[in-house]
Amino acid sequence: TLKLSLNTGDTKLCKGQSFTWKASGKDGYAPGYKYVWIDILSGDTLSLADTLRMVANKNKHIRVNLQDGCMPKSVEKSITITVHPELNSDILFNNTTANDTVLCYGQSIDYKAAATGGKSSGYTYRWLLGGTQINTQDQLQLALNDYKSFAGGKTRLLLITSDGCTLPDDSSEIEIDLLAPLAQSVNYPDSIC
Fold first, then answer.
1. Residues in CB range of 125: below 8 A, 6 or more apart
2. Of 163, 159, 156, nearest to 171 (Cα)?
């Protein structure tokens, strides 16, 4: 009797993750083995080999069929591929989505990272200010007290979120207008009367 086995059954994947399924035939007429992987919903043929490699982008129901050219009936197995929801990240200020802002020298502002989707656990964060990483926590206190020679100007605050699975990582960014410290100068008259 012709038999068919798979290296794994139903599978959960993250969006963008790749995976390879392998089918193995047993018994029957081995030189005549023919594999057909089919998307059950669309009817599309996905592979005619004993393996199927896919990059996850949406849920799929797949059937693999094995014929040996000798037995009157083929054998088949079905698998369901469930793709985790899309990973989304957001920069929060006072528990709402942060907007572009102005930050004066000496002022501080608190931001929080928020993530949804993906594997829904194990999120990691990277905060970058003007392209330089400044923090890896889920909360960020941004203060300009330490920028002794800072000249001011607009820069981007970027939050990169990863769940260790979804490819690519997700990001969110806002623009911050960083105001330089107030310059003091005193003008003296050239002569004293």
1. 89, 113, 115, 135, 136, 137, 138, 159, 160, 161, 162
2. 159
What pLDDT does 148 receive? 45
Integer Cα distance of 43 and 45 in angstroms: 7
Q: Tokens representing 147? A: 């920028």
Q: Which residue has the tokens 């102005």?
A: 102
Query: What was the pLDDT predicted at 183?
Result: 67
Tell whether the torsion through CA atoms of 138, 141, 146 and 149 is positive or negative.
positive
Distinct helix (H) and strand (E) counts, the chain: 0, 17
126: nearest Cα among 110, 117, 137: 137
The pair of structure tokens assigned to 190 is 């050239």
Give the integer Cα–Cα distance in Å for 110 and 142: 6
List the beta bridge partners of residue 83. 13
Q: Report residue 92 CA to chain centroid gap.
A: 19
pLDDT tens for each residue of 46-88:
999 999 999 999 999 999 999 998 888 899 999 999 999 989 9
**Averaged pLDDT of the chain:** 87
